[in-house]
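[agent] plan:
  1. take the single chain provided in the ticket
  2. run structure prediction with default settings
  3. attach structure tokens to the ticket
  4. add a short note for the reviewer (M.T.)
[agent] executing step 1
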Amino acid sequence: VSSLGPLNSGRWTAGVAKDGPRFILANGNTVRFQSVQDPGRFESYDFGKEQEFLAMSRNGRTLLRSVDGSTDVIRLDPSLWKRHLCAVVGRDLTPDERQGLPHDLPERICA
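[agent] step 2 finished; step 3 output follows
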């Protein structure tokens, strides 16, 4: 099991998911959903810069965050992100656009 720290003083939030046995920690530039039954199994959302996580929904998928002094709400919902991306861009991503994304994405995003 990897370390969960160091925690950013007063800038993180944590909880236990109401929709399953998972511990949630939003800290720094990461939101991590870790299985309570199998701590080696986790899902992680990694952001490009440090965030201040102020609050989260019961399931941990909606967070109130502050970045560079600007506060907003972010939903951790890849299917929503996909719909928005495809609606805005109207095409699949080019190889150059995919370089900064996780390598396990399907070949076609906007099917």
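[agent] step 4 note for reviewer: Residues 78-89 form the longest helix (12 residues).
[agent] ticket updated
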